[in-house]
């Protein structure tokens, strides 16, 4: 018995026949097809129409049960012909891991919606937005609201949360925007966008080829054409490798974790070149892994590469530069080089105060790191020392003060012993 299937490679469909419902048979058929499509390197991933990885015999068999013997195959060569002029995910205003994961989810939704030949709008926004939603069968109107209204998933809308970020999918052919501010990204998937009054998208508007954009929105916001490889394939592969590295590390499989992180660095460089935020992020993650294994020289090398890229791309004041200064400070701290560690933690705190203006949990963390290291209580002004006490929710004020005092005494004793 045999089964007919379809595999998509670089947007082209190829028919094939499976003689058995196993992953090895599927890989063998795709490899044969790849010779026709002139793929010159290894097959790296197979997914179904829902963008789920196909890695086992059971998943192949489940695809048959779902009547979906349609697969998508990805090869390493897919990443070498990219035009770097295509804009990737922006990290200037938003840059946290939640931002990255939320946009990975948005990219999955775009791919799934396109595969299903449907339309819609995906919004990735910081915090809960002030919107009112009015929908009918084929269209939806989004208006600004004076208060935060809880928007829940229903037949026409899906809502997902990733830390401080929310992902909204509006499943409509026509979306009307009235005086709306979207603090984040918008993905327009083949639908029509109509605007009334001012509409603000703070970061990026990524559109598919069949999308229809209101002329006023075109004039006020630049458009980025959806590129499945740059906006979906590579970011998701990098995130999957980082997630796998985290899992391997927790399971004590350190060699496997390092292999994933080193592979992420190579893919990022091969795809985007050596001076790109994705490369900086990959090196930063590799540096953290080295630091956990007390490979301090290797960790510092990774951090220095990452911070040099960030300085070129973002300038002096950016959240990633704060984080990298803290990472470098912790490396020196763990080696007992306290003077140098203090310099890096002070630099991180100074940049964070410029980036965030007001005290936040991240400025609290920077103050905490510096306080744990040097215990200079007098230097902590009311501007950022007392916000630290309130922001460390797991400790009350009295406990936090005594913890800082205890760490200070430990450091003083260590420095005294070292000098003797």
Describe the structure in your own words:
There is one protein chain. Among the domains are: 77 residues, Phosphatidylinositol 3-kinase Catalytic Subunit, Chain A, domain 1 (Ubiquitin-like (UB roll), Roll), CATH 3.10.20; 130 residues, no CATH class. It contains 13 helices and 17 strands. A hairpin with a 2-residue loop joins β8 and β9. 37% of the residues are buried. Keywords: Membrane, Repeat, TPR repeat, Transmembrane, Transmembrane helix. InterPro entries: TPR-like_helical_dom_sf, TPR_rpt. It holds the Pfam family TPR_12.
Spans with pLDDT under 50 lasting ≥5 residues? 77-85, 376-420
Number of strands: 17
User: Could you report the average pLDDT, rounded to the nearest whole number?
Assistant: 81
Strand order of the largest sheet: 8-9-5-12-15-17
Q: Outline, from the CA principal axes?
A: flat
Summarize the entry for a quick read.
By secondary structure, the chain is an alpha/beta fold.
Topology overview:
Elements: E1 3-9, E2 12-18, H1 23-36, E3 43-47, H2 57-65, E4 70-75, H3 97-115, E5 120-126, E6 131-135, E7 139-144, E8 157-162, E9 165-170, E10 174-178, E11 181-182, E12 184-189, E13 192-196, E14 200-201, E15 204-207, E16 212-213, H4 215-220, E17 224-225, H5 228-250, H6 254-272, H7 277-292, H8 296-314, H9 319-334, H10 338-356, H11 361-374, H12 385-391, H13 397-419
Parallel strand pairs: 1-4, 7-10, 10-13, 11-14, 12-15, 13-16, 15-17
Antiparallel strand pairs: 1-2, 3-4, 5-9, 5-12, 6-7, 8-9
Transmembrane segments: 370-391
InterPro entries: TPR-like_helical_dom_sf, TPR_rpt
Keywords: Membrane, Repeat, TPR repeat, Transmembrane, Transmembrane helix
């Amino acid at each position: 018995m045999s089964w007919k299937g379809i595999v998509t490679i670089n947007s082209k469909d190829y028919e094939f026949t499976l003689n058995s419902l196993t992953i090895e048979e599927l890989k063998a058929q795709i490899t044969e097809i790849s010779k026709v499509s002139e793929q010159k390197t290894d097959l790296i991933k197979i997914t179904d129409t829902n963008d789920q990885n196909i890695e086992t015999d059971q998943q192949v068999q489940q695809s048959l049960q779902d009547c979906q013997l349609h697969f998508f195959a990805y090869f390493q060569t897919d990443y070498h012909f990219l035009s770097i002029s295509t804009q990737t995910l922006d990290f200037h205003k938003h840059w946290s891991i939640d931002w990255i994961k939320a946009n990975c989810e948005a990219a999955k939704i775009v791919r799934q919606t396109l595969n299903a030949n449907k339309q819609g709008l995906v919004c990735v926004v910081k915090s809960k937005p002030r919107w009112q939603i009015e929908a009918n069968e084929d269209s939806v109107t989004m208006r600004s609201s004076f208060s935060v209204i809880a928007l829940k998933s229903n037949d026409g809308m899906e809502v997902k949360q990733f830390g401080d970020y929310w992902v909204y999918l509006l499943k409509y052919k026509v979306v009307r925007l009235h005086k709306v501010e979207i603090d984040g990204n918008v993905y327009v998937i083949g639908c029509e966008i109509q605007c009334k009054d001012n509409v603000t998208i703070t970061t990026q508007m990524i559109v598919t080829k069949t999308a229809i954009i209101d002329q006023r929105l075109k004039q006020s916001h630049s458009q980025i054409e959806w590129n499945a490889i740059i906006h979906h394939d590579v970011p998701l592969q990098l995130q999957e490798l980082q997630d796998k590295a985290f899992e391997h590390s927790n399971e004590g499989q350190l060699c496997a974790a390092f292999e994933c992180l080193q592979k992420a660095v190579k893919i990022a460089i091969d795809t985007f070149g050596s001076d790109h935020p994705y490369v900086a992020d990959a090196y930063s993650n590799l540096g953290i892994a080295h630091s956990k294994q007390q490979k301090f020289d290797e960790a510092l090398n990774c951090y220095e590469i990452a911070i040099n890229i960030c300085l070129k791309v973002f300038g002096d004041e950016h959240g990633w530069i704060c984080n990298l200064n803290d990472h470098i400070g912790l490396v020196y701290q763990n080696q007992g080089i306290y003077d140098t560690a203090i310099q890096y933690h002070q630099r991180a705190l100074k940049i964070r105060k410029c980036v965030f203006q007001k005290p936040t949990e991240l400025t609290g963390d920077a103050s905490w790191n510096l306080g744990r290291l040097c215990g200079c209580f007098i230097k902590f002004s009311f501007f950022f020392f007392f916000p630290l006490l309130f922001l460390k929710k797991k400790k009350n004020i009295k406990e936090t003060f005594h913890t800082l005092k205890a760490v200070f005494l430990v450091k003083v004793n260590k420095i005294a012993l070292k000098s003797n």
